[in-house]
Design brief:
The complex is a heterodimer. In chain A, 75% of the residues lie in helices and 3% in strands. By secondary structure, chain A is mostly helical. By secondary structure, chain B is of the alpha/beta class. In chain B, helix 3 packs parallel to helix 6 and helix 4 crosses helix 6. Classes of the chains: A mainly alpha, B alpha/beta. Chain B: GO terms for molecular function: ATP binding.
Chain lengths: 288, 234
């Protein structure tokens, strides 16, 4: 029973982390068809922003939930204006450019902070379920993931910006005919996606080893989840995160964490073979 | 009619290296309903899209309400008061009818719902469909929605591109009535591009014919009414 509870908690935690990691990517890829290969580096920048500001005396929650998304959102804004805006509709070029960008960011961060591991203490401490110990932070991650899910859904579904963003996603030319500048919406959406990614980096910082190359570990997983989820940002990403989180954690429990990752990728390959349009291409058509 | 609203001179445009418009020139007055008649492939849709700016002009000029808009982006032209009801309607398929109408207010400083309510007065058929997804409507309903959405933006000039294409006759009649009502109520100007003689005759003050990317002249009203229009030789 205790084992089941702790396993369930791990599954939920895995799904929540995965969801946080790929929500920003889903916004950018889903809305603009830009494959941002610097996504992992955005996560890394968020983690650095949180750790460095926390170690400089900023409250850890402010560092994770405010500083990290703001900083990476600004980085996203600059990147969109200087690079991405020339690449809309050019999928391959955008991959190449953002891959170059990822190398640049890794190089810059290494130059400034060195190739050493940074860290910050995990807040909250732990609790026990029977013979097993786990940390309250797991539940905090889950709460952040749920809040982000509701927040982004509400922005897309109920605000004027969300309506215009969805319209631009479906038909940028018609949106322009109605007086919307698609370029401005793309800019805002890209920064929003970057900010959400920065937040993910921030809240994952206390539970990850933070190095300039940490992004590499995230980018493949995040991509496969977004592709597995399909076009719908919220329903697709959350269902794919839940599925892959479950597969990953069960695999890790039954074998080792390394095989857990392997099982995740195998599951993704099978899923994309069966549902080329992703989960939301089949089951949640027309949702957000 | 108070002066010229739109002046197009020597307009050329095309797709890639394929030229479609070979120097189109015409002018229209404020408050006018101008018909442009032509067969498929003569450049009607290209003309509408070039005036709206979704296709760049390669030569010539477009003046709208005293402003040279030839080099302006589509959304800037829209904000100046140009509206397009495109061929194929281009309804946002996963947005509801209401959300599609709200997109008509996208350029406004704030979203004023009373504008939508006002427009819906003239489109009773849409009132019952507000919660439906745009993509789930019939072709005729989509056409009405596209027109209503365009009206929400309060344009000075509406470009109506083949509104009768693939639409059931009862809705075509409804559209003619709606447009005539709108014309009486608001100071609307409109360019109607069509192949449907009946539709264009009932609504237009003046009908031009377009052939091979050029305006070839005005079509005589008597001949329009008698249905005797050899469009190839106009």
């Amino acid at each position: 029973m205790d084992l089941a509870a702790i396993l369930a908690l791990n599954v939920v935690n895995g799904a929540a982390s995965l969801f946080l990691l790929c929500l920003g990517l889903a916004i950018i890829f889903g809305m603009m068809r830009i494959i941002n290969l610097a996504h992992g580096e955005f996560v890394m920048l968020g983690a650095y922003a949180a750790v460095i500001s926390a170690n400089a005396g900023v409250n850890i929650f402010v560092a994770m939930l405010v500083v990290a998304p703001l900083f990476v959102g600004l980085v996203g804004l600059v990147v969109e204006r200087c690079l991405i805006r020339f690449l809309y509709g050019r999928l391959v070029d955008s991959m190449l450019a953002t891959w170059g960008l990822s190398l640049l960011i890794v190089g810059l961060v290494t130059t400034i902070f060195g190739n050493t591991m940074q860290g910050v203490a995990t807040p909250f401490g732990g609790f026990s379920i029977g013979a097993y110990r786990t940390s309250w932070y797991t539940l905090f991650l889950l709460a952040v993931a749920l809040v982000m899910l509701v927040l982004i859904y509400a922005i897309l579904r109920y605000t004027r910006f969300g309506l215009i963003a969805r319209a631009v996603m479906q038909n940028p030319e018609m949106a322009a005919v109605l007086g919307v500048s698609p370029a401005r919406i793309y800019m805002a959406t890209f920064s929003l996606g970057a900010a959400v990614t920065g937040l993910a980096g921030g809240v994952l910082a206390p539970v990850s080893g933070i190095t300039p190359v940490m992004g590499g570990a995230y980018v493949a997983k995040a991509f496969i989840t977004v592709v597995g989820g399909g076009a719908a940002i919220i329903s697709g990403t959350s269902s794919a995160s839940a599925l892959f989180g479950l597969v990953n954690q069960l695999g890790a429990y039954l074998t080792t964490p390394v095989y857990g990752e392997v099982v995740l990728f195998l599951a993704a390959i099978v899923l994309i073979r069966l549902l080329p349009q992703g989960i939301s291409g089949r089951f949640f058509k027309g949702t957000i | 009619m108070t002066g010229e609203l739109l002046t197009v001179e020597g307009l050329r445009a095309g797709y890639g290296r394929v030229p479609i418009l070979a120097g189109v020139s015409f002018a229209m007055a404020e408050g006018e309903f101008l018909g442009i008649l032509g067969h498929n492939g003569m450049g009607k849709t290209t003309l509408m899209r070039t005036v709206m700016g979704t296709i760049p002009a390669t030569a010539g000029s477009i003046r709208f309400g005293g402003t040279d808009v030839t080099r302006l982006a589509t959304h800037q032209r829209s904000r100046l008061g140009l509206g397009l009801v495109p061929q194929g309607r281009e309804i946002f398929p996963t947005l509801s009818v209401e959300e599609n109408l709200r997109m008509g207010l996208a350029a406004a400083k704030r979203e004023d719902r009373s504008v939508i309510d006002g427009v819906l007065e003239d489109f009773p058929r849409l009132k019952r469909l507000l919660d439906r997804r745009g993509g789930a409507l019939s072709g005729g309903e989509q056409q009405l929605l596209a027109l209503a959405r365009c009206l929400c933006a309060r344009p000075k000039l509406i470009l109506l591109d083949e509104p009768t294409e693939g639409i059931q006759p009862s809705i075509i009649e409804e559209m003619i009535e709606t447009l005539q009502t709108l014309r009486r109520r608001w100071a609307l100007s409109m360019i109607i591009v069509e192949q449907n003689l009946d539709f264009i005759t009932q609504l237009s003050d003046r009908v031009l014919s377009i052939q091979k990317g050029r305006i070839t002249g005005e079509v005589d009203r008597e001949r329009l009414l008698s249905g005797d229009v050899a469009m190839t030789a106009a």
